[in-house]
Amino acid sequence: MKRLAWASLFWATSAMAAPGAWVDGVLPVNNPPVMPAVDLPVSLPRANPAHEAWAQQTPDQRLVYNVVTPQILPWPSSLPKDATAPAVLLVPGGGYQFLAMDNEGFDVAKRLDKQGVRVFIVKYRTLPLPDSFAGFKNALAGLFQRGERPASDNRPYAVADTQAAIRYVRGKAAALHVDPAKVGILGFSAGAMTVLATTQANAVDARPDFVGMVYGPTQSSDVPPKAPPLFAVIAADDRFFKDQDLSLIHNWRLSGSGVEFHLYSAGGHGFASQPNGTTSDAWFDQFALWMKASGITAKSDRK
Fold first, then answer.
1. Quick count: other Cβ atoms within 10 Å of Cβ 100?
2. Cα separation, 74 vs 178, whole angstroms
3. pLDDT tens across 67-82, in order?
4. pLDDT tens profile 258-275
5. Which residues contact 293 (CB under 8 A, 6 or more apart)?
6. Distance between CA atoms of 139 and 160, rounded to whole angstroms?
7. Measuring CA to CA, how many Å separate 67 from each of 106, 133, 282?
8. Which residues pair with 69 in a beta bridge?
9. CA-CA distances (angstroms) from residue 265 to 13, 236, 262, 278, 279?
10. Beta pairing, strands 71-74 & 98-100
11. What is the mean pLDDT of residues 211-215?
12. Phi, psi (deg, nearest 5) at residue 121
C-alpha cells in the first residue's frame, strides 16, 4: 500500500468531535458491559503488563483500552437457533489506542442482527498504554490535542487477531450455525485498516468472503488475487482521508471483483451509528441492500 494510506489510517480514531474537544470529558466505566466472549489464540505474542479497562466518551459511547487478550464476542442472534446464516465480523476502530465498542460494535450489531446474518465483534489487541485511567487520558490528549504519534505500529497484532477470529468462526461454522462460505468482515476507521490488511494478507484459512470498509482507506495498489467483493464508504470531508485518491477502489474494480463504493458529500469521520443529517446516514441501509443484491443474504430477509 502506498505510504500515504498507511500514514492517514494510523491517525484514524472514532471520536465524533473535533480533535481536542472531548478528551477532558472522557470518564472511567466502573461496570463494563458483560458479553459472552471467547478468547482467541495469540499467534503474535506481545508483552503488555497493563489491565484492560473501559471509558466512556458520552453516556452512550463506551471505549475499551489496553486490550491484552483478543476475543470474539458473538452477538445474541434473533435468528432461529438452528438456522444457518452468513457471518459478519465487526472490527471497531479507535486509532489502535482503544476500540469504539458502542458506536462501531454493539450498535451496529443490533442493526445487522435484523439482516439475516450472525454477528461477531472482534475485540483485538490495542496499543499498550499506561495502566491507569489518568494514563489513558494523557495518551488520548497526546493524540488529539498535542498531535503525538503512537510509539509503535499495532497493525500486525490487530491483523493477527482478526485472522484468528475468521479461523474461529469458519472452524466452528457448524456449531455456530454459520455458512463457512459466507464469512465476511466489516471494519471502521483503524478497523477498516485492519480489514484491508487482513484481506491483502490473503491467508488461505483466514480469507474473508466479503469485505466492508467504513471511513477507511481508499488509496492502494495492493489488491489480493481473486479479491472478495468490496463495499466501501467514506465522506468527502473525512478529516483523516480527504487527501487520499481512490486508487484502491479503481484497482479493486480493475481486478474483476465486485465493488460498491459511496463517496458522500459530507458526514465527517465516525458516523457508524451517529446520524448527522447528511447522506452518510444511509450507509447501513446501502450495506444491507448490497448484501442482498450480492446474494450474501436472502431477498426475503427481515426489515
1. 29
2. 12
3. 999 999 999 999 999 9
4. 999 999 999 999 999 999
5. none
6. 24
7. 17, 14, 31
8. none
9. 20, 5, 10, 8, 7
10. unpaired
11. 98
12. -100, 130
CB 41 within 8 A of CB 272: no
pLDDT of residue 22: 60
Query: Cα dist. 99→77, 106, 271, 295 in Å?
Result: 22, 11, 15, 30
The three cell numbers locating residue 99:
476500540
Q: What's the pLDDT band for 21 if we cut at 50, 70, 90?
A: low
How far is the C-alpha of 201 from the C-alpha of 162, rounded, in Å? Answer: 11
Cell numbers describing residue 30: 466502573
Q: Kindly indicate the confidence band of residue 288, based on its pLDDT and cuts at 50, 70 and 90.
A: very high
CB atoms within 10 A of CB 80: 9
pLDDT per residue as tens digits for the range 27-74 = 999 889 888 999 999 999 999 999 999 999 888 899 999 999 999 999
Long-range Cβ contact pairs of 174-179 (< 8 A, separation 24 or more): 176/74, 176/87, 176/118, 177/79, 177/81, 177/82, 177/83, 177/84, 177/85, 177/118, 178/84, 178/85, 178/86, 178/87, 178/118, 179/84, 179/85, 179/86, 179/87
d(CA 81, CA 4): 45
Burial of residue 148 (CB within 10 Å: 0-12, 13-18, 19+) is: exposed
Single out the residue of 3, 10, 42, 1 nearest to residue 157, CA to CA: 42
CATH says 3-293 is which class?
alpha beta
Provide the 8-state DSSP code for 296. S
Give the per-residue pLDDT at 7: 32
Closest CA to 143 of 12, 300, 289, 16: 12
pLDDT per residue over 98-156, tens digit each?
A: 999 999 999 999 999 999 999 999 999 999 999 999 999 998 888 777 878 777 899 99
DSSP 239: T
- What is the secondary structure of 76-130 as a DSSP string? PP-S-TT--EEEEEEE--STTTEEETIIIIIHHHHHHGGGT-EEEEEE-------
Domain ranges of the chain: 3-293
